[in-house]
UniProtKB/TrEMBL annotation, chain B:
Membrane topology note: Single-pass type I membrane protein
Keywords from the named record: Endoplasmic reticulum, Membrane, Signal, Transmembrane, Transmembrane helix
Domain annotation OST48 N-terminal: ranges: 35-286
Name of the protein this chain belongs to: Dolichyl-diphosphooligosaccharide--protein glycosyltransferase 48 kDa subunit
The keyword Transmembrane helix is annotated on this UniProt entry: yes
Pathway info: Protein modification; protein glycosylation
Length: 684, 438
């Protein structure tokens, strides 16, 4: 229960917001027509079901968009198939006949007999409201589309009574006798069904029965929901749009079928029209159809046709001297009958009347009523205009109705004069003026001031309305913006004729977070009635404030710029260790040459000294061992070279130990041979 | 109140720390959300906002509409989430029905799922609380609206229907097609928490905007003014969960989608506002149809080789590559960018290089291993406005030269070599002379 109440409250809240936004209803226009083409887009040339096809075709037909030729082939195929098949459900038959009514797939004398008998049987045996609805409405459609058959309902009054038996005392209806739950949506279906029964009945239905239905209809209107702005709707589990549309469809057919006429409260009918117009352009196909179909019913019915007063613009510009335009049309935007529009009253924001009883002029070419002269005391501001529509006598035949009074919020805007704008730095104690500058607020960045914490900044200007009165704007801000993006906003208040702001920096040091430096000064003046709202960068002021005490609050953080936060970082390449600086190769080669020189000098020295190897042993044994000895030494030296070139220490030591033993042996032999030879020489 | 605030703040903080630890909800192969729960405070929103919902449906989303106070609301059953995304179009709801509260919504986002939250004037504390956890502060004054006397839609006498055109410059968030017409906005202002760097403005107000009650005189300076006011913001959490927060529910409505717009002071008149394009593109982003990146493994090898070594030696030349793909909503497409970078990292980056792309999704570079040995990482940390964050790394050790890898015959030492060998040759000659001279 709670939730339901809340939901209802929210509906009204939302609708109120919508109505505020729209402020005034507009009849169906071209924007609806272009939207309809988007909303009713068939998939691959045809619609999913005949119900959808009917809704689309009907809506497009009402809006005057001809798409039949594109759609007829595929859809007609379906229609013929459903009408030919004896096993089709009542609902499908009903929608097939509905589509047929628009596309004329099957016409003439060729009445589908099976279908008629099926529908007649359906009407006779029906227990559920929906069965009654589909069969009776189906028969009505057959009657409209195919001529020359006797379609009268045998026992019309009995059917009427059994449908009526499903009604409830509050005007709502049940879907079946077993189900106690009643619905407003069902009531709409029931009215349509009953209208069908009346038109199909061979003889007149008992007037007292019809009268009870009429009483029920009035009961139903007691449960209507209302918004503050005079919008009415019926609520139900199917949603307000479907429910209200169903009721309106039902009422229209019911009123059309019987002769005595329905007497419905006119303000509620206008309210229902306003509800559908207030919905705007639904994006959902079903809602769109319900809106358009219900409005079409309101456009052409036998109880009352609402006229809608609309304003192309609710803003009047006093500088452009535009007239205030008002249009009156039916809900679907067709021409209204002869009538006159009167501005009963124009109330300003304080509630006092500015304009009284003024009739609007009519321009027949544009079918617009307009008000082109405003009284001298009409100034900028917000107004509520109250319009009245007076229908001419001749228009009353068709049962046109209008709202008693249409209240429209109007904003009158104009250019506000800005004068005597001044900015000054004052010395605090004496109030003497240090520096004062006239300001031209249309130019940016002309002022450059400086002040310390003992001084004051004064900004003043005068705003006047076109009538020369003092104008107090909604928005008059002075913004001081420090280099570090810290901002401070001050209100410029209006005292008497002057808007003035005095900033005493001594009292503001804490608020300014002791931030010295350059502050940009920005002045914003704006109001809904002001056409020349401005945002002016006056210039800058250099503030010299005391040092920040330790305990003072820090300026707030500012969000970082998202563009600089991301993005690639600068590349890093590793700096390799610089290799040791080596001398040039040539230098090494020169020194290599120098190193080799002593060896060459040694060889030359030896030849100079006349060395010989004459004592080399001549005997075979001694010579062999000497050669082996020197060969061994050579091998050791070679081993060293190999060690340098490629061998590792272990291989080298192994080879060296072998060579060492060998050298020891042959060396001993060679030396002992040499010793023996020299002994022999001595002894000789 | 204050305690509640602190509590929710700390919850937000904790959740931020926890985010990276929680697993991804999306299947890795198909990151777009499929099942979306739509919470409404009034079922009539379903028809008044039907274009937005039908564009979602036509893109394959499975929308489940529920009233926000439905007593059977639940986001998960038996520990499994029932939805991949959540749309909250219930600005006035004070309390959700069923098992839903602001904490379970925070958990939902923490699990990597996406959220579209729309507040409106007189948004409830619950909605404000959820926004606060995402780093968005709505104006505390519940009667305040965004007013702009310089960039309003000309059809509006109150100057509260803002024609905003200060959009974030990001193709990934708002699509490649420029949004020409201004976006119409009527609602409440918010600011971003400066300490939260995950949240950013998508639609900002103009410098002349302010947040106040349009029908009463101002007695004190407004809390939010100028371009500090954000109209629509997005947040991408560390786990790549995405959140859109709008201050206006009407922004998504059929009425504003279909409305024409002429901004005050501008001669351009547009047949249709930018709202539909803006909302559609933003929903593509938030439900991961765009800007969701996937990386293959990091591939590296020495120049001239193809196999990945187990270890590098200092001063090796190596080639590095990685494949990055972007989800297009249906398939993985090669990602093309010129700002992807790789780091060769040990405690701090030793090498940071921008990768070059072959436009087929492969990114390459080559560089020399630094002459520092230790355990390094290849790191690709990619953060770009609107894209999911990539954080990849792969460990690789680097060793110094072995003893036999140094230079062998140093020219500078030639004199020493020469000295040795001439001495040896001299000794050999001298041994003959000494022994056999006569």
């Amino acid at each position: 229960m709670m939730a339901r109440c809340l939901a209802r409250f929210l509906v009204s809240l939302l609708a109120l917001a919508i109505c505020n936004a729209a402020s005034v209803s507009h009849p169906i226009s071209d924007s609806h027509r272009s939207a309809a083409l988007d909303v009713f887009v068939p998939l691959d040339g045809s619609y999913k079901s005949l119900e959808e096809a009917y809704e689309a075709l009907k809506s497009l037909e009402i809006l005057g968009i001809d798409k039949k030729s594109d759609l007829s082939s595929g859809t007609c195929e379906n229609v013929v198939k459903v009408l030919a098949s004896p096993s089709s459900a009542l609902k499908d038959v009903f929608y097939a006949l509905s589509v047929n009514g628009i596309l004329k797939c099957k016409t003439g004398e060729d009445v589908p007999k099976d279908i008629v008998s099926k529908l007649q049987a359906g009407a006779k045996d029906a227990k559920l409201l929906l069965d009654f609805y589909y069969s009776i409405r189906g028969l009505v459609l057959v009657k409209e589309q195919f001529s020359g058959t006797d379609l009268t309902l045998g026992d019309a009054e009995a059917i009427f009574r059994s449908v009526k038996a499903l009604s409830q005392s509050d005007g709502r209806w049940r879907y079946s006798s077993n189900n106690a739950e009643s619905s407003t949506f069902a009531a709409g279906l029931a009215f349509e069904t009953l209208a069908g029964v009346i038109s199909l009945a061979p003889s007149e239905i008992d007037q007292s029965l019809i009268q009870t239905v009429k009483t029920g209809i009035l009961k139903l209107f007691d449960s209507i929901q209302k918004y503050d702005d005079g919008t009415f709707y019926f609520d139900g589990s199917e949603g307000p749009i479907s429910t209200t549309a169903s009721v309106i469809r039902g009422l229209t057919s019911f009123a059309a079928s019987e002769s005595t006429g329905l007497n419905l409260p006119g303000d509620k009918i206008v309210g229902l029209a306003k509800f559908f117009l207030g919905v705007g352009i639904p994006g959902d196909a079903k809602d769109f159809f319900n809106q358009i179909d219900a409005l079409a019913c309101l456009e052409d019915n036998r109880f009352s046709v609402p006229l809608i007063l609309s304003l192309p613009s609710t803003v009047i510009s006093l500088t452009k001297k535009e007239p205030l335009k008002v249009k009156v049309s039916t809900v679907l935007g067709s021409k209204a009958p002869a009538l006159s529009v009167k501005l009963a009253e124009a109330l300003n924001s304080k509630g006092s009347s500015v304009i009284n009883n003024q009739e609007l002029k009519f321009d027949a070419d544009s079918a617009t009523y307009f008000l082109d002269s405003f009284p001298k005391n009409f100034d900028v501001g917000k107004y509520t205009f109250v319009f009245e529509i007076l229908l001419d006598e001749s228009a009353n035949e068709k049962g046109y109705i209008t709202e008693a009074q249409t209240k429209v919020p109007i904003a009158a805007t104009g250019a506000i004069g800005i004068e005597n704008a001044e900015i000054a730095v004052l010395d605090s104690d004496v109030g003497s003026i240090e520096s004062q500058k006239k300001l031209d607020l249309t130019k940016d960045g002309v002022v450059s001031l400086s002040a310390n914490h003992l001084q004051k900044l004064r900004l003043s200007f005068q705003l006047t309305t076109p009538l020369g009165l003092v104008f107090k704007p909604h928005q008059a801000f002075l913004k001081l913006k420090h280099e570090s993006q810290v901002e401070h906003i001050f209100l410029v208040k209006t005292y008497g004729k002057k808007a003035e702001l005095v900033l005493d920096f001594l009292g503001l040091v804490e608020k300014l977070y002791y931030l010295s430096g350059k502050y940009e000064i920005q002045l914003t003046i704006g109001d809904a009635s002001m056409e020349n709202s401005l945002l002016s960068n006056i210039g800058h002021i250099e503030l010299d404030l005391p040092e920040r005490p330790e305990k003072a609050p820090l300026p707030p953080l500012h969000p970082t710029d998202p563009y600089s936060r991301y993005g690639p970082k600068s590349e890093i390449s590793h700096i390799f260790r610089v290799p040791e600086k080596l001398p040039a190769k040539q230098l090494s080669l020169i020194f290599l040459g120098l190193i080799v020189l002593p060896f060459i000098a040694f060889l030359i020295g030896l030849t100079r000294l006349g060395v010989n190897i004459k004592s080399f042993p001549s005997s075979v044994g001694a010579a062999t061992s000497a050669l082996l000895f020197h060969g061994g030494i050579g091998a050791v030296l070679l081993l060293y070279v190999l060690f340098w070139l490629k061998l590792d220490l272990f291989t080298t030591l192994k080879a060296l130990s072998l060579l060492g033993v060998f050298l020891l042996f042959v060396g001993h032999r060679t030396l002992s041979n040499l010793a023996a030879a020299s002994n022999k020489l001595k002894s000789a | 109140e204050a305690n509640m605030m602190n509590l929710s703040r700390s919850v937000a903080l904790i959740s931020l720390f926890l985010l990276p630890l929680l697993s991804f909800s999306f299947s890795v192969d198909n990151p777009t959300d499929r099942r979306v729960l739509v919470l409404l405070d009034d079922l009539s929103l379903k028809s008044s906002h039907s274009i937005f919902f039908s564009t979602l449906k036509s893109r394959g989303f499975d929308l489940d509409f529920k009233l926000a106070d439905d007593s059977k609301l639940a986001l998960q059953r038996y520990g499994q989430y029932l939805y991949d995304g959540l749309i909250i179009f219930a600005p006035s709801t004070e309390r959700f029905g069923g098992a839903l509260d602001s904490k379970s919504i925070a958990d939902f986002v923490d699990s990597g799922r996406d959220l579209i939250l729309s507040a409106d004037t007189s948004a409830s504390d619950l909605i404000r609380g959820i926004a606060l956890e995402c780093g968005v502060d709505f104006d505390e004054d519940s009667s305040a609206m965004v007013i702009d006397h310089s960039s309003f839609s000309l059809s509006d006498g109150d100057h509260t229907l803002i024609a905003a055109d200060d959009l974030v410059k990001s193709d990934v968030i708002l699509g490649k097609t420029k949004i020409e017409a201004p976006v119409l906005f009527r609602g409440v202002a918010h600011s971003l928490n400066p300490t939260n760097n995950l949240v950013l403005k998508v639609l900002s107000a103009s410098p002349s905007a302010y947040s106040a009650n349009p029908s009463s005189k101002l007695s004190s300076p407004p809390q939010l003014t100028g371009s500090a006011i954000s109209l629509v913001s997005v947040m991408q959490a560390r786990n790549n969960a995405r959140v859109v927060i709008s201050g206006s529910l009407q922004l998504f409505s059929d009425r504003l989608f279909r409305s024409g717009v002429q901004k005050a002071g501008s001669p351009n008149k547009y047949e249709k506002s930018g709202n539909e394009q803006f909302a559609t593109e933003l929903s593509k982003w938030v439900f991961h149809e765009r800007g969701h990146l996937k990386a293959g493994s990091l591939v590296h090898h020495r120049v001239g080789e193809t196999d990945e070594p187990a270890i590098y030696r200092i001063k090796d030349d190596l080639e590095f590559s990685v494949e990055i793909l972007e989800w297009s909503g249906r398939s993985w497409e090669p990602y093309v960018a010129d700002d992807l970078q790789v780091q060769f990292y040990m405690m701090s980056p030793y090498v940071l290089k921008t990768l070059s792309t072959d436009k087929k999704g492969m990114f390459h570079t080559s560089f020399k291993v630094p002459d520092v040995y230790g355990v390094f990482q290849f790191k690709v940390e990619y953060e770009k406005l609107g894209y999911t964050t990539l954080s990849l790394s792969k460990q690789i050790p680097v060793r110094p030269y072995r003893h036999n890898e140094y230079e062998r015959f140093i020219p500078t030492a030639y004199p020493y070599y020469g000295a040795c060998f001439t001495t040896m040759a001299g000794f050999f000659v001298f041994s003959f002379v000494y022994l056999y001279h006569k």
